[in-house]
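Figure 2 data, in text form.
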Amino acid sequence: MAKNRSELVAEVAGKTNLSQTAVNGVLDALFEVFESSVANGEKVSIPGWLAVERTERAARTGRNPQTGAEIQIPAGFGVKLTAGSKLKAAASK
């Protein structure tokens, strides 16, 4: 079962006695910080919970699944999320 954003906002608003609009604004700001930091190659770490960082992918040769022809896949970037100890402990309950 998954929570969508509106369910998450409602739950956080209920626990913090903030309005859903305020919580939504905080989430927007948090994701903007993640976006700008990762775009600049900075690692964002929330100790015990998670770390977010940009990773580099080397150029490589792949195959077109329809034709089987070799294609060159250019170098690029990806994003790596690492769970912290508190998040891992919650998952193992």
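Caption note: The CA atoms of residues 12 and 18 lie 8 Å apart.
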